[in-house]
Amino acid sequence: MDIVFIGAGNLATRLSLEMQRAGLKVRQVYSRTEEGAKGLAEKLDCDWTCSLDDVREDAGLYIFAVKDAVLEGVISQMKPNGGLWVHTAGSIPMSVFEGYAVRHGVFYPLQTFSKEKAVAFCGVPVFLEASSEEDERILECVAGAVSGTVRFLSSEKRRFVHLAGVFAGNFSNYMYAVAAKLLEGQGIGYEALLPLIIETAGKVAEMSPSAAQTGPAVRFDENVMALQESLLEDGDLRELYRLISRGIYKDKIEGL
Fold it and tell me: Of 126, 210, 177, 146, which Cα lies nearest the Cα of 17?
């Protein structure tokens, strides 16, 4: 099956390269910029275009890996064809394709991606949805070529998977950034935190996150918490510290 990628960003880059490695045929890349389209196409040794009018119409699968805010606009500008159109967004329903493509679906890998960093795709969960049983089988075959964890999920449930991913991935990474800034202010390198981060991530692979929770908030050590709040000059960070500490303690007393 010939595949066309609509988009050349982080996810499109890592997914297309992994599909190529698995023996799937990526034939063309579209991006609104020549730098993006040509750069990824050179890695894949395939055609590229910066015009939706020039997207080939004979491919079997079109993967829309673009920003959520522009997805429907890009879809609406595509010429109709007989291929299967799928998007990679966690929070946008499959119905975004209705009126534009008879065959449509979702191919959502639950992972954070960067162009420069390879990901062990075999362990990445891929959540699928399709408008027909035949296309479900096609997507299952494609997903199975790159991942060992493939399952079907409705648009409604997928929104909650995405939301959970924001808490687990994006918000935790923001906390790393805050922690790094606190250390930098004292002339201490961020690498001092890496063993703690790695150990915490490892623990939640073996026990529930609630069981793995430690620190002053879970003990409700008011003296330590008051001292740490006083060290935070930024009012928003102080409020964030209080909010999260209250949440940790509430989870403990409620047995979550």
Answer: 146
**CATH label of the domain that carries residue 111:** 3.40.50.720
Provide the residue type at 137 as one letter: R
Q: CA-CA distance, 28 to 61, in Å (whole number)?
A: 11
Residue 100 tokens read as 């534009």
Residue 105, H or E segment:
strand 104-109
Between CA 216 and CA 35 the distance in angstroms is 49
Answer whether residue 102 shows pLDDT above 90: yes
> What's the pLDDT at 254?
85
53 φ, ψ (degrees, to nearest 5): -65, -25
Residue 160, pLDDT > 70, answer: yes
Q: What is the CATH number of the domain that holds 202?
A: 1.10.1040.20
104-108, 129-133, 135-139, 247-251: which range is least confident on average? 247-251
Domain with 27, as residue range(s), is 2-153
Predicted confidence at residue 256, as pLDDT, reads 58
**Chain centre distance of CA 95:** 20
Strand pairing class (61-64; 2-6): parallel
Count structural domains, the chain.
2
